[in-house]
Amino acid sequence: MSIGRIDLNLIKVFDAVYEDRNLLRAGKRLNLSQSAVSHALTRLREVVGDELFVRTAKGMVPTARAAAMADGLRDSLRRIEATLGVEPFDPANSIRRFSIAANDHLTAVMVAELSRLMGVEAPGIDLVVRPSTRLDLAEQIDVGKIDIAVGIFAQVPSRLSSRTLMTQGELIVMRKGHPASRRKLALRDLARYPLVTVSVGGQEEGAVGGFILERGLARQAEMFDRHALEEALSAEGLSPRYRTTVPHSLAIPALLHGSDMLSIMPSSLARNLAAAGDLLMREPPYPSALSTFRAVWHSRNDHDPAHVWLQDCVARVAERVA
Fold first, then answer.
1. H helices of the chain, where?
2. What is the per-residue pLDDT across 20-56, written as a single tens digit (0 to 9) for each?
3. Across 102-106, 208-212, 234-238, 266-270, least confident range
4. C-alpha–C-alpha distance, residues 256 and 249, integer Å
5. What is the pLDDT of residues 107-123, one digit of tens each?
6. From the centroid of its chain, how far is CA 86?
7. Cβ atoms < 10 Å from Cβ of 174
8. Partner residues linked to 191 by β-bridges
9. Are 26 and 38 in contact (CB under 8 A)?
10. Residue 183: exposure state from Cβ atoms within 10 A (0-12, 13-18, ≥19)
11. CA-CA distance, 238 to 92, in Å (whole number)?
12. How far is the C-alpha of 81 from the C-alpha of 22, rounded, in Å?
């Protein structure tokens, strides 16, 4: 294969189809008709000698050859654009769309502020929030479906880049009028009163030590330091009762109302839920680990000015939340 037969525009078409898995959406991104995208793919297939994408009911699925080519081609394209300034980024006039993965906790405490910030600086940019609890999160980052994932990650593979956003501890939340609300919480309260906890994956999903490992990325599965709680209670001959476990933190207020359950959660979420005035916050009566929240993205976007701007927006919002 001769490199002289390669048109840079064919690589851009490959990049768009690989990310969108749809000829029509890829065409809109590139300002090309669907037939023009199809024609460009045909030319690239002739050069490479592979089908590259197979049309299915779920969209354009890349072949093994396309998947093997993707990272190198897309990274090279980003570097060329950054070096030549082919596509300068102006947030005030951009019409791009970004996808961020976050759990409902971070969606509640960060996304509204992020949307407001982007509305001021980049009114033409659209924001899509996808659940970070999905089991294929790492794959979605790899193929470009997710621009940035925000959360607690115990392990980040070398192909991904990350940025620390904030560090916070935990608080215990209860309803107003709870029997334990008129005094300082004691360890025995965590054994006496049942708990409602958030878990987005247990051992059946491969969770180990509160984290799920997928394609080298270890993401948080439980929204509290279970080990610290159980160790503190065990030292007193006590044990907690996990009465209700839910996959969504925003279900907690409804569960706490009219019950004597307690819930342990990140401090930013506790403040957000207590702001409505129906719930109270208390410090845990035992030492728990601080959690570090990070933004994670594919390293091929390190030199993309638009992506760098998005990273900065997320970091500024996290600083306000913290």
1. 8-20, 23-30, 34-48, 64-84, 104-106, 112-121, 137-142, 187-192, 226-234, 252-256, 267-274, 305-321
2. 898 988 888 787 888 888 988 998 898 888 999 999 9
3. 208-212
4. 12
5. 989 988 999 999 999 99
6. 29
7. 23
8. none
9. no
10. exposed
11. 57
12. 23
Looking at residues 192-213, what average pLDDT do you find? 76
Q: 0.70 exceeded by the pTM?
A: yes
- How many angstroms separate the CA atoms of 156 and 162, rounded? 8
- With tokens 């709870």, the residue in question is 178
Which pLDDT score is estimated for 86?
Answer: 55
- Rounded-to-integer distance, Cα 14 and Cα 7, Å: 11
Cα gap 51→45, rounded to integer Å: 6
Residue ranges of domains in the chain, CATH in brackets: 3-84 (1.10.10.10), 97-164+292-321 (3.40.190.10), 170-289 (3.40.190.10)
Side chain identity, residue 100:
I
Task: Let me know: does 86 contact 80? Beta carbons within 8 Å.
Answer: yes
Closest CA to 75 of 142, 9, 163: 142
Contacts of 122 (CB under 8 A, 6+ apart): 91, 92, 94, 309
* Contact assessment for residue 41 and residue 15, using Cβ atoms and an 8 Å cutoff: no
Count other C-beta atoms under 10 Å from residue 216's C-beta: 13
State the Cα–Cα distance between residues 18 and 23, nearest whole angstrom. 10
Q: In the chain, what is the straight-line distance between the N-terminal and C-terminal CA atoms, in Å?
A: 53
Looking at 192-290, which runs of residues are DSSP E strands? Answer: 195-198, 207-208, 211-214, 217-220, 242-246, 263-266, 279-282
